[in-house]
Specification:
The structure is a single chain. The protein is of the alpha/beta class. The chain has one domain: Trna Endonuclease, Chain: A, domain 1 (3-Layer(aba) Sandwich). It is built from four helices and six strands; from the N terminus they run ααβββαβαββ. A six-stranded mixed sheet has the order 1-2-3-4-6-5, sandwiched between helices. Helix 1 crosses helix 2. The longest helix is centred in the middle third of the chain and has 19 residues. It is globular and about 50 Å long.
Length: 145
């Protein structure tokens, strides 16, 4: 995810304003970045339906190449949020949502990405990480971009 933060910093200006749906640009950049990794054998599920709601990205990665999807699979949930209100309220709401998605699919990892699209904010202030947030027993990494 640290590598994606740098990728986003370098490529966001060309993409994030092209879409009316404000989460589309950041989500497409994340998918483009992850696709380079997933080409080695995993699968990216977009807007994966979990219950009545949807997580933005759900990755399934075979733990053993020989077994493929018939063996053990690592599951990773990514929830993306645009910072609209305060950072803390965005994080609190996003953590609850991400934890529920991760619980629903039995994810091994869960990540909440907060995209700060406010004008005039320096990249050094937008890029941060908090790898140890918890909701119940679930650990969620939170990333600022």
């Amino acid at each position: 995810m640290s590598a994606f933060q740098q990728f986003f910093r370098e490529n966001a200006d060309a993409w994030i304003e092209r879409f009316d749906y404000k989460e589309a640009g950041p989500q497409l950049l994340l998918q483009a970045f992850l696709q380079r990794i997933i080409n080695g054998g995993g699968r990216i599920n977009r807007e994966y339906g979990l219950g009545r709601k949807r997580t933005d990205l759900f990755i399934e990665w075979p733990i053993s190449e020989e077994d493929g999807y018939y063996g053990a699979v690592q599951r990773i949930v990514f929830e993306l949020k645009i910072l609209y209100q305060s950072l803390e309220s965005t994080v609190v709401d996003g953590l609850k949502q991400t934890a529920a998605y991760a619980e629903q699919c039995g994810a091994d990892e869960a990540h909440l990405l907060i995209f700060d699209r406010r004008p005039g904010i320096a990249w050094d202030d937008k890029i941060w990480q908090d790898p140890a947030r918890h909701v119940g027993q679930r650990s969620i990494s939170v990333w600022g971009m």
